[in-house]
Amino acid sequence: MSDLERRLSDLETRPNNFPTNPEFMYSRSTVKPLTFDGLTSWTVFKTQFDVVSSTNGWTDSVKASQLVASLRGSAAEVLQGIPADKLADLTTIEKALEIQIWRQPPDAIL
């Protein structure tokens, strides 16, 4: 057995339990979500948010966190009406935002 064959055999039988170095891991680029202030169209923002969350492969829990983090101004004030134990629930947050938009005077929605 040649030296090269012996080395190859050693590599094949050696366990592959090396710690993963984040430097060498493949990382797909992530798309950053926009911010929502309540002055722009909720429907447009929601569509963009859904595309970003799908592209980034977010779970519903991550979507909820990202949505909360993207809220600004009057849109962020909606969070005050949501119980603390529901702030990680995507459906609750989205419904609260939709309800708030319909409560605004028509000229505030435009």
Automatic annotation (TrEMBL):
Basic and acidic residues compositional bias, start-end: 1-13
Region (Disordered): 1-20
Name of the protein this chain belongs to: Uncharacterized protein
The organism's taxonomic lineage, starting at the top: Eukaryota, Metazoa, Ecdysozoa, Arthropoda, Chelicerata
